[in-house]
From TrEMBL:
Its EC number is 1.1.1.1. The lineage of its organism: Bacteria, Bacillati, Actinomycetota, Actinomycetes, Kitasatosporales. Coiled coil: none annotated. It catalyses: a primary alcohol + NAD(+) = an aldehyde + NADH + H(+); a secondary alcohol + NAD(+) = a ketone + NADH + H(+). Belongs to the zinc-containing alcohol dehydrogenase family. This is alcohol dehydrogenase. Residues 10-342 form the Enoyl reductase (ER) domain.
Amino acid sequence: MKAIVIDRFGPPEVLRTTWLPDPEPGPGEVRVRVGAATVARTKDVAVRAGRPPFAEQVRTFPHVLGTEHAGLVDAVGEGVDTALLGARVAVSSALTCGHCRYCAQGREEACPEFRLLGIHRPGSYAEFTVVPAVNVQVIPDGITLAQAASLAVNGVVAAAQLAAGGVGPDTTVLVLGAGGALGSTVAALAASRGSRVITVGRDPGRLAGLPLAAAIDSGTDDLTGRLRSAAGDDGIDCVIDNLGIPALWDAYLPALARAAVVVVSGSITDDPVPLRFRQLYLHSHAIVGVRTANRTHRDNLWTEVSAGFRPPEDFVHPTPWDQAVDAHARIEAGRSGGQIVLEFPGVAERPRR
C-alpha cells in the first residue's frame, strides 16, 4: 500500500510517500480502505514537528501519522461479523483496554491504557488501516467520507463537551475558537440542539455560515460588557474554552450565569488562568476537563447525524492526499480554518478481495 510517513521529526517536508506491506486484521479487528483522513493540529502537525504532548510517545520510524478517518471495510478478522464487509465507516482513533474500571463504566476516555491510532500504532495516512471493530461506526447515506472523517474527530468531542456542559434548548453557550475544526462543529451542534451560541474571536467575519446569535471581536473594548449584552439577563450557561487564554478567561468569568460550566479540551498556552475558589463556590460554577469522547457520546452524535446533522459546510476542506506537506504547512502557519481532510483516490464501492 501507499503511505505517507515520517523518518524523523521536523518541518512539513519530512513527510514522504512510500510503499508499505498491506496490514492484516487480527481477531476482533477490521481493515479499512481509507478514503478520507483528518489532519489534526495536535495529533498530526505537532507530532510531526516533534512537539508535545504526543511526539515523545512515537517509538519507531518510519512512522505513519493520522488519527480519525473514514472509508470502506475491506477485510475482517476472526470473530468480526462479515456483514461489515463493504460498509462505509467512520473510524475513531481511541484505543482502550475494554476491561478496566473506567471502560466497564462506559468512561473509556479515562482508561489508564488509553492509546491513539497514528501515535502508538500506524495511522490513517495510508491506503489501509487495521483497527478494532469497536472503533468503526457505519455511516448513513447522504454524508461524504470527508464529512464523516471530520465528525469522527470533531463531532464526537463536541458531543462530549456539550454533554459535560449541560448544553441544550434554552441555554446560552460561549464557544471560543469557533473558526477552528472543533470549535465550528461545537457551535453548529449546540445550535442544532436549540442553544443560543455566542463566539469571541479575532476575526468574526470568518465565521459566516455558522448559526451564531452573536460573534464578538476579541479586541473590542469592554469585552465583558459585550458578552453580558449578548447573553442577556441570565448570563452564559456554558463556555467551551479550548484556548486557555488568561485575558479571555478574565473577560467571560463575570458574564457567567449561576451554575455555569466551563468545559476544557485543550489549550494553546501554558500560562495559568487566575482561578479563585470563592468565585466557584459562591456561584456554583464548575470547570470540567474533557479528554475525548466515549462510546455513549459517539452513539449520540451519530444518531443526530442520521437525523440530519452535518458539519458546517464551509469548515470541512477536502484536500488531495498528495498535498499533505502543504496541509501541514497551512495549519502550522495558522492559515487554515476548519478541518482539512486528506482524500485518497480510488476508494471502490466494494472492498478488494
